[in-house]
Write a structure and sequence with these properties.
The complex is a heterodimer of chains A (about 325) and B (about 300).
Chain A lengths: L9 H60 L12 E2 L6 E2 L2 H32 L2 H14 L4 H20 L7 H25 L3 H9 L4 H12 L1 H17 L2 H6 L17 H8 L8 H34 L1
Antiparallel strand pairs in A: 1-2
Helix pairs in contact in A: 1-11, 2-5, 2-8, 3-5, 4-5, 5-8, 6-7, 8-11, 10-11
Chain B lengths: L1 H27 L17 E7 L1 H17 L3 E6 L3 H9 L5 E4 L5 H11 L3 E15 L7 E3 H9 L16 E5 L4 H9 L11 E3 L2 H9 L4 E6 L8 E2 L1 E3 L11 H5 L6 E9 L4 H11 L1 H9 L7
Parallel strand pairs in B: 1-2, 1-3, 5-10, 6-7, 6-8
Antiparallel strand pairs in B: 3-11, 4-8, 4-9, 4-11
The chains are: A mainly alpha (about 325), B alpha/beta (about 300).
Subunit structure (chain B): The complex is composed of two ATP-binding proteins (PstB), two transmembrane proteins (PstC and PstA) and a solute-binding protein (PstS).
Subcellular location (chain B): Cell membrane
Main location (chain B): membrane
């Protein structure tokens, strides 16, 4: 609001001010209101589209999975073999679920200590220069296409593992776990690092002034305080690993057996869907069975996310 | 924290844009009605159904696409489901052409006659041969059909039982979605199950690559993939027969045992669009597609 220059009487000025204020304000106000409403609507629409999409995907998956349940072939879902094109077909989900779980578990065992360790280093130990170079570098890892990682696993890792353990083939659950760990690592590191960095500085300062060493402070104060974020990071990493398709299709060998060690080929649920969906006759039992696999996978990731949500909420309550 | 906020903003934005894009595309990709297009070229008209063998479905699809490019007013719907499904559909009159990777049985032919009052017409559109490959360091040169079956069902699991080194056999097969997988299962293994630890690969190239680097490996690939970096096995019909190497010539003269013709069946002489499509499949253009898809041409 610009001050009026040619005023003599104070009252005059006040009136003029009031006028200009109400005029300009009402015009601006109206524009603001409209943009406000539009923004609100847009945001609501985005949220709405997201939620509806999820619900539709959910419905579609289960709609396509249900017809199998009405079929005698449904009885084979708990068997130990996946022979989808035999006569009669056997749709045993156990080897697929076991395959997905063992590969994911291996990936998590490898990537969580590495990822969280790297996060602690970046947030607490590294000098600013090191941090600003390392963090983007780690995040670039996340951008490597899974086909490339898979190819690396196929060409470099598999022969190596075959020679080290003296195996008949290098395409094993371990190969899959290592390549998936590579892919989950950046997610875990970068989100954990954010969580640790957001712990207030005074926590650290208080612990140090009480006579704790840096490591004690990190171990007993900082990490517990950032635990909710770290848990979320780990869960996201698990989600990334269990849902990965291309890489495992390339490096796990895809043999449908229930693995007893990490050194045998496995067949994951995602790889099964990817490998078989292209050729399967629409509306056949096999087609519905693949949707059952998808639905089971969906439920698994859903539960993982739910657990992550509950855990991080719990942690927040504790704080 | 700041970077996380920025990052999550970007992600959120990307997600929204992506979703909007998906929805827009989803709405936009409704089937185009190009009925208003004038048919300048006097092409083939009409729509036909082709149903059957999963082995042939890709070949058939490729041919149909090429055919429809040339004939804008023809539409050909190709579906898989297996040879039996295709033949059943032909008997019930729900398909114009049936793809089959096996010969029609006598009772099926009788059913076609009974239901449609026409004789089943058999057209061979291509031949299919499968070569078995092992690592270059493997001394084994040839195997009988029975031995191949034993390897793939898991009855035999060491090369020394077949005159090779003391080495575990690592069995490579194609994914279940592949017609080759089915062909070997039916034709070589007499419909017994694959050993459950067979490594299933989703391409011929992947099998070649694995066999190259694995001393104990055995795999099978289409004829187009046999090369010098691996060893192709000769196959004997039985213990007394001579071993035959797979090649286009031995597949054509039927001396190589792991080969088969690929059939298309019609009820009676194909008419109209169906006839045009069959002629196209047998033309040099169609046979070029056969070669491209790693089958053996019939001409």
């Amino acid at each position: 609001m610009s001050p009026n220059g040619e005023n003599t009487a104070i009252t005059n000025e006040i009136i003029m001010c009031k006028e200009s204020l109400s005029k300009s304000a009402s015009k601006k106000r109206r524009i603001w209101d409209i943009t406000e409403k539009m923004t609100e609507g847009l945001l609501f629409l985005s949220a709405f589209i997201g939620v509806v999409t999820i619900i539709l995907i959910f419905l579609f998956l289960f709609k396509e999975a249900i017809p199998l349940m009405a079929d005698p072939a449904a009885n084979t879902l708990t068997s130990k073999n996946w022979y989808p094109i035999s006569n009669p077909p056997v749709f045993g989900l156990l080897p697929l679920i076991a395959g997905s779980i063992i590969v994911t578990f291996g990936a998590i065992v490898i990537s969580v200590p590495l990822g969280v360790g790297a996060a602690i280093y970046l947030a607490m130990v590294a000098s600013p220069v090191v941090r600003e170079t390392l963090k983007p570098a780690i995040e670039v890892l996340a951008g490597i296409p899974s086909v490339v990682v898979g190819f690396f696993g196929l060409a470099v890792l598999a022969p190596l593992i075959k020679d080290i353990f003296n195996l008949p083939t290098g395409l094993t659950a371990l190969t899959g776990a290592i390549t998936l760990a590579l892919m989950a690592l950046p997610t875990i590191t970068s989100i954990s690092e954010d969580a640790i960095s957001s712990v207030p500085r005074r926590y650290m300062e208080a612990s140090l002034s009480l006579g704790a060493t840096r490591w004690q402070a990190i171990k007993t104060v900082i990490v517990p305080a950032a635990l909710s974020g770290i848990t979320a990071a780990i869960m996201l990493g698990i989600g990334r690993a269990i849902g990965e398709t291309m890489t495992v299709l390339m490096v796990t060998g895809n043999a449908g057996i229930i693995p007893d060690t990490f050194l045998v080929p496995v067949r994951t649920m995602t790889a099964t869907i990817a490998a078989e969906m292209g050729e399967v006759a629409r509306g056949s039992d096999h087609y519905y069975a693949l949707f059952v696999v998808g639905a089971v996978l969906f439920l698994m990731t859903f539960v993982i996310n739910l657990v992550a949500d509950i855990v991080s909420r719990r942690m927040k309550e504790v704080e | 924290m700041n970077s996380l906020k920025k990052f999550s903003k970007v992600v959120a934005l990307a997600a929204v844009v992506g979703l909007l894009g998906t929805v827009a595309v989803g709405c936009g990709s409704a089937p185009k009605q190009d009925g208003a297009k004038p048919a300048a070229d006097a092409g083939v008209k009409g729509s036909i159904q082709v149903k059957g063998s999963d082995t042939i479905v890709n070949l058939s699809q490729a041919m149909a696409e090429e055919f429809m490019k040339k004939n804008k007013d023809a539409s050909i719907a190709v579906t898989g489901g297996g040879s039996g499904t295709g033949i059943k559909a032909l008997i019930n009159g729900t398909t114009d052409l049936a793809n089959a990777s096996r010969e029609m049985k006598a009772e099926e032919k009788a059913q076609v006659k009974e239901k449609t009052q026409k004789d089943a017409k058999e057209i061979i559109i291509a031949n299919d041969g499968i070569g078995f490959i092992v690592n270059k360091d493997n001394p084994v040169k040839e195997l009988t059909m029975a031995q191949l079956a034993d390897i793939y069902t898991g009855k035999v699991s060491n090369w020394k039982e077949l005159g090779g080194n003391d080495e575990k056999i690592v069995v490579y097969a194609r994914e279940t979605s592949s017609g080759t997988h089915v062909f070997v299962k039916e034709h070589v293994m007499k419909d017994k199950e694959y050993r459950s630890d067979a490594l299933l690969q989703n391409s011929n190239a992947a099998i070649v690559k694995e066999v190259e680097g694995n001393k104990g490996a055995i795999g099978y690939v289409g004829l187009g993939y046999l090369k010098d970096s691996i060893k192709t096995l000769g196959v004997k019909k039985d213990a007394n027969a001579a071993a035959v190497m797979p090649s286009e010539a031995t597949v054509k003269d039927k001396s190589y045992p792991v080969a088969r013709p690929l059939f298309v069946y019609a009820a009676g002489e194909p008419q109209g669009a169906a006839k045009a499509f069959v002629d196209f499949m047998l033309s040099s253009e169609g046979q070029a597609i056969v070669k491209k898809m790693d089958f053996v041409p019939v001409k």
